[in-house]
What does this fold into?
Amino acid sequence: MDDQLLDKIEKYFNGTLSEQEKKAFDAAIEQDTALAAAVDNSGITNDAIKLLIEDNLRIELENLRAEESLEEGTNVVSIKKNKPVAKMRILRIYLAAAVSIALLLGFFGMSWAGNNYSDSALSEGIYDGCNMPNVRSDSNTLHPFLEGITAYNSGDYSKAIPFFQGIVVDDPRYAEAQFYLGHTLLKNKDFSKAANQFKKVQILNDLRYMEDAEWHQGIAQLSAGETNNEFQTLLNKITTEQNHTFNSQATALQNKLNSFWRKLVF
It folds into this structure.
């Protein structure tokens, strides 16, 4: 989450957004589940902090007033001597509240970061599947991969995987089949196998699938929790190639991997 969005969420809870801005933000929350979750987490944190401060300060200040009232009933000199002590007690109250707030923010921050910046959360947020071709062409001819594509589109990955594996190497559409196999493995959550499959697609050196295979190899490795040197090298390659199809997506991912929230937990 960027600083600008955090600032807007804070203004949302503080009531400093204009009526038009608030309506627009409410509409955005309804449309964006990730934003809604972030707002909910912020709301819980704010409520907890307010409750914590109110309870701590109310109890401690009531105790302090009771002590001072008792001192006033003894002698004036006693009150003057104890004023620095009273001030120190108030200071300790605020320090205790500040520590409690820090701990509370740390707890909710780590929880939120774990839910939004883990390997699985990041990979799920950037993978939207594969757009399989239409199984029927303009000439009403059935696609040669009809069985595999139909199985993939219906979510029957256990049927689609062996179909694409069965396309022989001398088939003119072999590279295409291997590319679809990589996506099918990824959808089936066979992440390590999917990463290796996308490497295989790159070795075939078919320009139609090269950049797509590089990016989805990275997604598969991230999904598998394999954020090793190979993964970092691949991600750096995509982010430094300005004309790469997935340059902007890779840059956004790299920023999240290097963010404060990621480092807070991982």
